[in-house]
Each structure stands twice: as structure tokens, then as C-alpha cells.
Amino acid sequence: MTLNKQAIELNRRLNPVICDLLSERGKAIFFPKEGIVAQGAEAEGKRINATIGIATQDDNTPMRLSSIADKILLNPKDVFPYASSYGKPVLRKLWREMIYRKNPSLKAEISLPVATHALTHALSMAGYLFVEKGDHILLPDKLWGNYRLIFENAYGGVLETFNTFENGMFDIKSFKEKLSGSGKNIILLNFPNNPTGYTPTNDEAGEIADAIKSSEEAGNKNIVIIDDAYFGFVYKDGIYRESIFSMLSDIHENVLAVKIDGPTKEMYAWGLRVGFITYGFKGAREEDYKVLEDKTAGAVRGNISSASQLSQSLVLHSIQSSYEKEAEKNFNILKTRFEKVEDVLKNKKYAEYFHALPFNSGYFMCVELKGIDAEKVRQTLLKKYDTGVISIGNMLRIAFSSVAENDIESLFENIFAACNDVKHGASL
Fold first, then answer.
1. What is the pTM of this model?
2. Selection from 284, 210, 288, 277 nearest residue 244 by Cα
3. Is the predicted pLDDT of residue 427 greater than 70, yes or no?
4. Is residue 229 located within the same domain as residue 374?
């Protein structure tokens, strides 16, 4: 692949260790500082500006339809024009401030977040930048199925799993064994985990970080992609409440930590589709982060151009107003539902057909069935008990986040009854 001179210059400016971790696409990508983007930036603020590809009213405000504009209270300039491929500048700065505030042990310098079209797109952009065909991506065997589409189908990566649990705890031994390979490693961590709703304890999080550091000291280079989709939803004491990005962003010169997050769950804004990619590594210079931001923005521009201006403006408005107070109220509702699930599962009769996998956080929990076909149980729940869950192998994933507290006991009673039907061959 012949590289553009702008890509060559970015690679020259980037820390050599980090540059080596880039895929061929990652090495080749750049944010265009010449042509339309650069010329448009130079014309910004001029009385007559015929560079930008939008239509304007005679008063220089964005041209718009009243059938849309009348439904939105924001200033039209924060709704209708294109956003930067990097994201809204004020929002990027505030989001970085929030990362520090929510992760008080994080002291290292980190990059400015680059805005994406929510977390799935952010994960895809991480794949674009770092995953080469044939690269193995290490992650727990209890995983979100969409990772296969994102990393295997799109970029040719190979998902390699380690055992998630052993004796009701995170299986650090299995993680260490699978991490023992040499060279470039790509690790994907997702806490709280989807589908199980598990976050490591404080001690387990430290062990995970120590294992990664030991891998680096053995001469490996690791990219750790941290999927923080459900960040902040921890309901029990003794569980690691920060993002593991806090531990990994300054742990070793050969570890690049890539934080994937956004307002999707943190701000209860699933349909707004805003996400962020943020970088951290030991010894990083401001120049290194600027290069990574430029390459990420280049990948975004070549993929979707930019994330939604309206959605970013709404997120910004919430952060600048009453976000934290409102979010706390919703969190408490979810925590109450979690506690209700814990209480209901104390009923020993359920052990005949299923047991709960460890869970302490997030939106979900899973029950593992005992010799009963999970898909048949799911179908029975739909057709006979007016109840929907997700079947994954021999498990049922249960989104208690979307079930009213008063319905949680009925939910598990229905699961028990459906298991009994399937076990004894009852027809639908």
C-alpha cells in the first residue's frame, strides 16, 4: 500500500511502539489537512464563505424546515450543520473532564476523546486502526455476539476466548494462560460484562492489570480495548467502580489503552448514537495523542463523515445542566431492580433447573440451565408465558434493566415453569 504523504508524516511523529501496533489501515489513515477541509477552515468567519457544503438563509443561519426546527429548542447552528469529524470541541473537553471525575485514581495524561456514532462505531474504528487480518483478539468467553461482526467479519480478526468464571469468580488463571503468547496482543475487556452483568472485584481488577503488565515486561506489546458501554452501573460494595482504563493507561510503555464509552447507557440516551474513543499510554506526549486523534478522526471522516450534530448538542446540554442528579435517580431504580433479582433468586426451588452466573452490575444477568435446551425454554416463554428473554448457548440472558420491580418475581416464576414444561415435554 502506497501511503499518502500526510499519513507518512503522522507515522513519523508517533511513538514508534504505538505506530507498530497500528494495522496497515491504521498506518495509512490520516485526517486531510489539505483540500476542502483545510480550505473551509481557512474561510471560517469570512463575510462571504462559499466553501461549506450546506445551504444557508440570507442571514447566514442554516437553511431548515420549520416542520423539523419547530420541534427542537436548541439554536439551529447546534442542530443542522455538519459537526467536526473529531466531535464538538466543547463536548470533547467536557467528556475528558468527566472521565477524570468518574475515575479519581486516573492521574495520567490522556487524549481528548474523538466522537463516534455510538459505541459500536467506536469499536469498529478501533478495529480499523489496530486489527489486521488474522490478529487474535483475547476476550472472555461470555461475550457480546456483535463483537464477531465488528472484528471478525469486518476486519478479519479472530476472537480467542478465555474462561470467564471459575468457582464464582473471574478466572484470572485462564486469562493469564491465554495472554502468554508473544508479540502483539489485542485484549478486549468489557465491564460490566455483557451478557453476565459482572464487574471484577477490586482485587481481581488489580490482578488483571498485573497480568497485562507482566506480559509487557516479557517483551510483548498489548492493545487493550476497553468497552465501557455499561460503565458506572455497579451495585455492590467491593466491586471495582472505576474503568480499568484508570489502571492501564499508565501501566507500561508497551500498553496502549483504548477507552470506548459514551452517553448511550451512562446518560440513558440509547438512540442518540454518540460515542467516544480515548487513548492512554505511559510516556505519551501531547504530540502522540494528537496523531492518534488525527488518525481516528480520519477514519471517522472516511466512514460516516461525523457523528450527529444534534445528538452531540443534546449530550452537551445535559452535561452542562442537570445530568448527574437525573442520572442518580435512574441509577437507584436499576439498583433496586438488581436487589430484587438477588432476593428472588434466593428461592432454592430454582436450583432444580438453573443457577445464576455471578453478577453485580450492568443491565443484565444470566442463568445457566441444567440439561435443558435454552432455545426451547425461550420459545416456551414467548408462546405460553408472555415473556421474552435471550438464549445464548445453554444460558438465558435477562435484562432486569427493562423489567419493573413488581414483575421480577413473575419473570423467574415463568422461567421456572417453562423449564419444567420443556423438561417434561409439555406441548405448546
1. 0.95
2. 210
3. no
4. no
